[in-house]
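[agent] plan:
  1. take the single chain provided in the ticket
  2. run structure prediction with default settings
  3. attach structure tokens to the ticket
  4. add a short note for the reviewer (M.T.)
[agent] executing step 1
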Amino acid sequence: MSPHTAWWLLIQGRLAFISSLAACALFLACPFTSRNAEKPVLWLIAALPSTPMGQVFFSSSSSSSSLTVWVRFSLQALCPCLRSASSGAPSGLLPLTLRLLLPSPFSSICLSFCLSGGSFSLGQPSGLACRCRRCRRLPSWPCPALPGGITLEVMAGGNERSMKALKEVWKRAENSLCADCGKPDPDWASSTLGVFICLSCSGIHRNIPSISKVKSLKMDHWDDAQVQFLAKHGNAVTKATYEAHIPIYYYQPNYNDCQVLREQWIRAKYERKEFTEPGKQLPYSDGVKEGILWKRGRDNGQFLPRKFLLSEREGCLKYFTKQDAKEPKINVKIDVINATFQPVKIGNPNGLQITYLKDNKTRNIFVYHESGKEVVDWFNAIRSVQFHYLKVAFPIASDNEIKNRLTRNFLKEGYMEKTGPKQREAFKKRWFTLDHRRLMYFKDPLDAFAKGEVFVGSRENGYSVQKGLPSGTQGNFSWHYGLTIVTPDREYLFTCETETDQLDWIAAFTSVINQAMTPQEYAIEAYFKFKS
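[agent] step 2 finished; step 3 output follows
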């Protein structure tokens, strides 16, 4: 390793990058650990080997919270890395900042520098001696004895008491999941809201700095007041305030959902405070919603503005090709509609796929809106109208039972190859969508209509999925990870590009086949048999 490029420290068994001298900054990280609060012990004493660049020596006392660091540099070795056209520094040295990160158990530190070589000599073995004082800020000491405008910065890591209290709050069961998406083991928190969140959600919080200020639980310094605020609040207390009155139909995203859903959920809670008061008028709870969405044309593939109208009273969703049109292009009953976000498929972060049944065949509509809030409001408005429609249609069903019948995500989507019913035709690549018991395939992912559909029933009714293809299968196929869907009437053969895809599809089919069929699904199965 070239000493002029980078140094490394061995910290608790791991190599840690220290510095890039080409960037004119050297970071010295003190490797340490502590057996207990009273007697911090430095486990790794001399972490850097001797090089032409310099040496670092560590020593500590087991009876006090102090650490002494001796740093010795050869300026002659540093000069090739720090040359510049600057005339203000001796021999053209760029100003150099030496930064020393203090581990939190150590409340004070002594440093001693000795620089020699080249054109510079301090003439004393100790060019700088200073003691860190307890301070919440990051102190800095310019040293007039050091040449070339060299500055020393000491970065304090915080006191041990605060760190211990922070860990105790962090370990509470209520804080074991992200407050916003439910992802396990969150390692960030909002110092203004008092919630523990994951890295992904912390990025969304960072975009609303007037509401939330986020810090890393592992890397950032937390003072006593901030730790006390977290201890007083935490996920449970904060949720009781900001999630007190969430409508039963409102979709609460998880960490697998897309960015726009999670962002608008976070903004709805903390920025707009939509769920803090009972009976609050919300833009998706009126029972009617009208507006413009950009819809993809079925034939030309262009997105054009179209007027949409959602009505709870009429129990339908309409869209019009012209804003002043009196008759809608389509009129879809709300009970056959599904809506799911598809930003990757549609190519827009706010892309929404609306699916409905027409003559018992699946029809897709792809829309988006420039505003993330507007498209999520449309999504929850559809769920709201569906919920109230189903409450009337099924008066004895519980709210949770009806909630489970609202919009749903597809179980699995992706490319597979398929052959025809004779199983001798060439395998063709198609886009497949598994929507519970309906397996649909399309020539293109954005096709309006499926080219075909397969009903996937339950195991007790003779349905199963098998890994691989039947022996002696004919037909040309380029993918070699096969699977077979067995139905009472025939076998459907598919191939996948990778083994991972194969196993994922088998798992998705298995989850459906292992579920008992409902009376409504028996009726759908009968229709498929009649159609074939």
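[agent] step 4 note for reviewer: The first strand starts at residue 8 and ends at 11.
[agent] ticket updated
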